[in-house]
Amino acid sequence: MKKKSNNFGFKPKKRKKEKSFQELLAEELAKPSEDEEEERKQAKPHQRNKRVRVVRLSKKETKGLREQEEIRENFINDLKEIERETKSLEKNQEKLKDLDTFNRAMKSGNVTMSGGIGGTVQKVKEYNAIRLQRKKDELALSKGKLKELQAELKKLDREEIMINRKEEKDKIRELLYQSAKLGQTLDRGKKIKNEKKNRKKKKRKNTKGL
Length: 210
What we know:
Distance between the termini: 41 Å
Strand content: under 5%
Structural class: mainly alpha
Largest sheet: none
Order of helices and strands: HHHH
Number of strands: 0
CATH architecture: Orthogonal Bundle
């Protein structure tokens, strides 16, 4: 005969299987960070599934990097300015050469037009040559400094990445240690429970004969 159910036709709910600590930990580690999620949202559709590793820095480290970046930008701007001035001076030198040639041609002929122009041109040429050399030296020095700064920035970036990787590894190691510890505690609890159960069974068995 078929048994009647007491749940008025409703199916009993299936109990969800509880996940182990290791499974929960693996899920948590697999989740993308807020920065990665934000970057994924802003990326183009074909780039959304690509996971980009984001190096997390502290406020102090970020400030230091920002300052370094500003210094680098200032150097680049100074370099551009020096290069512009250098080009301008070189053009002036070319113009002065033409003027000097014209002045010599005037002196060789019978044209009498402001006799003092040659001396003035020579002085301007000398002054411009000195300025040009100074700017070239400044440009070379700035380029050297920029190279040093770029090398320093690369080194700093590499150090930051290494520090962050070490911190992440330490964090994972700590979590794994905690999970192992928790597993041992659970096993110990199970063992104690089984021992109590066995003692009760033994006691019951011994009292049956009386």
